[in-house]
Automatic annotation (TrEMBL):
It holds the Pfam family GIY-YIG. InterPro entries: GIY-YIG_endonuc, GIY-YIG_endonuc_sf, UPF0213_domain. CDD domains: GIY-YIG_UPF0213 (cd10456). Belongs to the UPF0213 family. Residues 1-77 form the GIY-YIG domain. This is GIY-YIG nuclease family protein. It comes from Oleomonas cavernae. PANTHER family: UPF0213 PROTEIN YHBQ.
């Protein structure tokens, strides 16, 4: 079974990073239904902006934790596929 890390854009423009071991589409549907009662429940609807597949949930969770620590600018670069910007955005004191 595959696992996913994903980034949702919430109705207020904020970004939510999560992971799942199930079907990604079902997970996004559950977020939009308010099934999780957490951060996204009051910021619906949400839009899937990025997803990365992993062979194990442990790897997906590790990536989720990594991306959650990133700045908004770095998350947006990942969403946009601007991989060249990621090292620059990781530097301390770089653009937020």
């Amino acid at each position: 079974m595959s696992a996913w890390v994903y980034i949702l854009e919430c109705s207020d423009g904020s970004l939510y990073v999560g992971s799942t071991r199930g079907e990604l589409e079902q997970r996004v549907t559950a977020h939009n239904a308010g099934a999780f009662g957490g951060y996204t429940a009051t910021r619906r609807p949400v839009l899937l902006r990025f997803a990365q597949e992993f062979s194990s949930i442990q790897d997906a969770i590790a990536r989720e934790r990594q991306v959650k620590g990133w700045s908004r600018a770095k998350k947006l670069a990942l969403i946009e596929g601007d991989f060249n910007a990621l090292p620059r955005l990781a530097q301390r004191g770089g653009p937020a």
